[in-house]
Structures are given as C-alpha cells and as structure tokens.
Amino acid sequence: MTTTTQTPEGADPFAEFFGFLDDPTGDEHDPAHDGTDPHEPAPVAVLPGCTGRLGQARPAFAVPSAPLVAGCCSCGEGIERPLNGPRPACTHNGTRYPDGSVVVGGCRVKPNGRGRCFNDRHDVDGVALFSAGNYVPQCAGCVAQRLGVDLDALPAGEHFAPPRVARFDGGAFFAAQGNVYTLRRADGGGWEAVALSGGLAGPVHGRTQADAIAGVWQATGSQWDVSAPVVVRREGRDPYGLPQARADVLCEGQGLYLMKNPHAGRDPWAEPCPRCGGRGYLEAYKHVKGGMCFECDGDRIRMSYTLAEASAVVRRMAREERTARDRRALDAERKRRRWDRFAQAHPEAAGWIAEAGRGGNDFAGEMLGRVHAGHDLTAGQVEACERAAVREAEKKRERDTAEAARVARVTRSRAAGAKGETVTVAGTVARVWRYSTGPVWRPVRKCGVIVEDGAGVSVVMFTSARAAFDLEKGDAVTVTGEIKDPDNRNRDTGEIQALIRAPKFSDHGSRNETAEA
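Structure tokens predicted for Nucleic acid binding OB-fold tRNA/helicase-type:
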C-alpha cells in the first residue's frame, strides 16, 4: 500500500522545508538584536530570507536587494544601507562619530593632524589635513572643493588629544596648559576635575574620568594646535659688521634666528653656528687647525632652510614644548607630594635637607634626589640628616649671638673726637696684627692696633713704634694720638673706629697681669 503525502493547495514546497529561515532568530524585542546595544557590533539581520549577523548577512535564496535597518543615529532617523552595500553609516550632514569624524556632504570627514597636503600643487607644510572617503589626507581647500561644501562646514582640527590619567600618591592626575588637575568622585555621581595649581576656577563634571578630562581639555582650549609661526624680517649685521638680511621665525616662545645662507646653491636661509656665530673659525683656537670651528667644521651654519621648512620646524618645537610643559607640571606635582610625605614623617631631616641643598651640600642634594625619585631613606641616612640638623642649629645660635653683639657694638659706638684733636683712650687691645710694607729690598715692619675703652669709643692705628709690637690681644693700654679720620668705620662690623696717627703708648699691662690683679 502506497502512502501519498497531501500538500495543501497553493503551498510552496520550499516554505515547508525551509520556512524556519523566515522567522527571526530570537526575541524580536531583545536589545542585542535591534542595533541599539553598544556592545553588539553587528546586530542580527531580521530581513526575511536572510540569516547571519549584519556584517556577515547572506540571503538564504536569491532575493532582490533590500534595505537593512541597523539602528538609529544621533539625528533620530534610521540608518539604512543595502544588504550588499558598504558598512552601515548615517549620511545625514552634521552627524558626529566617536572618532571625531563628522558627516559633511554625504561623506565622513575626519581631522588628520597637520602636515603637507598630498596634492601635488601644494608644497606648504604645517597645514590642517582632513581624511574624507578613501582619499589620502588633504588640506581643507582640496577636501571642500572635492565634496562641494564650504570650508566652514569641515570639522575643526584638533591636534592635541586629551591626555591619559597619571596615577600616583593614591590619586588620579592630569595636566592641561601647564596646570595640574586631580580627578575625584562627584557627590551626585560621576567624576569631577579640580585644578591644583592655577587653571580653571571651578570643577568640571563628567560621567567618566575621560569625560571630565575632555571637559577640561575643551574649556582650556588645549585641543587646538599651536598658533601659526610668525616670520619677522629685519636688517642685521654679519660677524664682520656688514649689513645682512635676517629672518626670525617665532612660535609661542620657540624660534629660529636665520641669516642669509652664505653658500650658493643651497636653501636661501640658514641657522648660524652657535659656537662661532657664523664666522667659521674661533679666534682663541688659531693654534688648532688654524682656528677652524670644531662644531661646524668651518661651514659657518648649522642647518639650511626655506622659510616654509623653518616654520614647520618651529611649530614642531612649539608642540613639543607644550607637551613637555604638561609633563614637567605633573613631575613637579609628583615630587612635591613625595617631599610633603617625607617632611611629615621626618620634619628635622627634611628641614636640613632643604636648607643645605640650597647651599650646595652634596649629601643633602643626593638625599633630596632620592626622596623625589620615590625611594625611602635608610635609618642611617635619616639619623645623619638629623645630626647635621642639630649641628646646624647650634651654629645658627652662635651666629645669631655674634650678630646681636655686633649690632649692639655698632649702636653704642661713637667718635673719639674731632679731626685734628689729640685724644687719650685708655682701654683694652681688641685686635693686633703685624704686616710689612715698602719695597721688597727694604721692607718696613708695621703693626695695626685696635683699642676699645668699653664705653663705645674705639680707635685704630698703624704704626712702627716698638711699643706696639709688645702688645697682645686683651692687654690693657693707654694710647694718645691725633685724630686723622673721626668717622672711619670698620668694614667688617660697621662700628666707628677713629683713625689716629703718631700714637704713644703708656700704662701697658699684659693680659696675665690684669687677670692676676
């Protein structure tokens, strides 16, 4: 007996065996299948007669090309592309993508830094470049002409990307325009960037750390490229004093100072050798290869340029300096925090290291470098610094005491009398020194003596009298002489010491005799 399968009238035999391909694979309300899940790069194709994901969708049978819905863009409309067309993308003007590109004239245009346009007609370096379509990077004029749009429609070129987070001392930091910012949790959720040294007055809020950094980056204008170099032409002088054309190329504190290239057939401008100043020789080294400059080998220049090349070099120097400034600011903040932590743990040692380091002490400088590098000092090193701090404190007290005594002597010092007046001063020898004067073949021995009476009167004399050579410091003596300069001051202490001449000594008593008495 033969069994015959009955097929409903009008039914498609393919639908009976392959009809499951017409059904969506999974829940049609699943966000992972409708192109709205950011973690799903290729949503499932839900077109009738198609299987696989969006990037690999293939028709189960030969069907006419149909539009493929891949979600919605920022403009609120659906993104549609043929199944066998390019990667789904919105072509509505003004749509922005996470990589910084913007849809202009139906094409995604992305800033591509600065450099030389790949158009053969352009030879200027340092212009803003844009990538549009499958073309090589071109300048704004070429891209706008090719797309048929205005220059203002192109996205603004951003040369400096937001920095990454630097983590140290238990915090997150970054620098913008030479100012350091710290990232901290905001009260209402998210993150906020707060300036630590200069910078923006208030905090900048962001959902993530990257958003907060981007907010500061935009608010401070750090994303923009450095300004265009300025070329200043002037009339200068060559090393021989003759007139010579000069050109200064400047950009944000960086620059090249050029002169006319002395070599024919090279670029028209050149940077003079910094060693010889463009002479090619050194006067002080005539005995070595005729004085040829050992830096430029007599070529007189370091590098030759066109003005366009010099502008590109100076702009690159300015960009590097801006990045280096942020790096130095972060490094200074890192060192400051390390030093504050060390100073809090060892205040005496830190005080001595800071003071002695400024004075050029090698050991203190080495310890300061170790602290800034993040290394811990050993117990012996800390004790050595503390002992040095104690010694320095004692020396400081002695210096302060001596300075107070000097100020007191200067305050009470007074003139011994008027000029030409004969005076007699009875007191103590404060200082005595011996020296020789006159020609070598007939030297004359002399003695300098300072006598103080203890009441503010002090006299100084220079004599060859025999009695002066018997005096010693601390001896009691009476001196009589004529005042030559009543307002003479000691250049070391500043106190008044009247200068007398033709002194006569009497009532000399040695220091030992005075002590015994």
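The first strand starts at residue 50 and ends at 51.
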